[in-house]
Write a structure and sequence with these properties.
alpha/beta; eight-stranded parallel barrel; 8 helices; 10 strands
């Protein structure tokens, strides 16, 4: 595969979102999970979507929220993708797609092959594989066993997440051949704010990793 897409998640400012878009991001992720230190304020989220929606996918990240809240937020902000990072079931995901008109990305924290089998029941637009950490929903900075992702068999595009950095994303791509990669903590200066140098390094490493897979 010659084109691995990049999603920059945990974006909280228009400045960081603009920089990600300029570097070639496929998507920016805006977190609407109250406990997260990377939670994006609704007004800032709407400003990011208004500025960038024709250039990148604007992804809203939710964890076990009422359907009406997700629908309202998707409309208010102008999301193009809804990422569900909790215990939402297949029927809930289908209803989100129907009610919002957004594409749906279902995340799963991976500990074993059983998690991949469970994810196969979700007929959504994207599957996101993340690391598992007790009591946390993403943003852990931890990786998982990429050999599990390499054994995945599904036609749903796979986005790899969990502890990716400029230093390891090349190897992650080589092992898993993902459709896309997702990064938050690995390119931060502090929670919710991106480090420009690490962002640039991440995109460069993704390009190098994709080129290696093609060879």
């Amino acid at each position: 595969m010659s084109d691995v897409r990049v999603k920059i998640c945990g974006t909280t400012s228009l400045e960081d979102a603009e920089r990600a878009a300029e570097l070639g991001a496929w998507a920016v992720g805006l977190i609407f999970h109250q406990p997260s230190p990377r939670r994006c304020a609704p007004d800032e989220a709407a400003a990011i979507a208004a500025a960038l929606r024709r250039r990148v996918e604007v992804v809203g990240v939710f964890v076990n929220r009422p359907l009406e809240e997700v629908v309202r937020r998707a409309d208010e902000v102008g999301l193009s993708i809804v990422q569900l990072h909790g215990d939402e079931g297949p029927a809930y995901c289908s209803e989100v797609a129907r009610r919002t008109g957004c594409r749906v990305m279902k995340a799963r924290q991976v500990r074993s092959g059983a998690d991949l089998l469970a994810l196969a029941a979700f007929h959504v637009d994207f599957h996101l594989l993340d690391a598992h950490a007790y009591g946390l929903r993403g943003g852990t900075g931890q990786t998982f066993d990429w050999r599990l992702a390499a054994r995945r068999r599904s036609r749903v595009p796979m986005v790899l997440s969990g502890g990716l950095t400029p230093e390891n994303v090349n190897e992650a791509i080589a092992q898993t051949s993902p459709w896309g990669v997702d990064v938050a903590t690995g390119v931060e200066a502090r929670p919710g704010r991106k480090d420009p140098a690490r962002l640039e390094a991440f995109f460069a490493a993704v390009g190098a990793g994709a080129a290696e897979v093609v060879r």
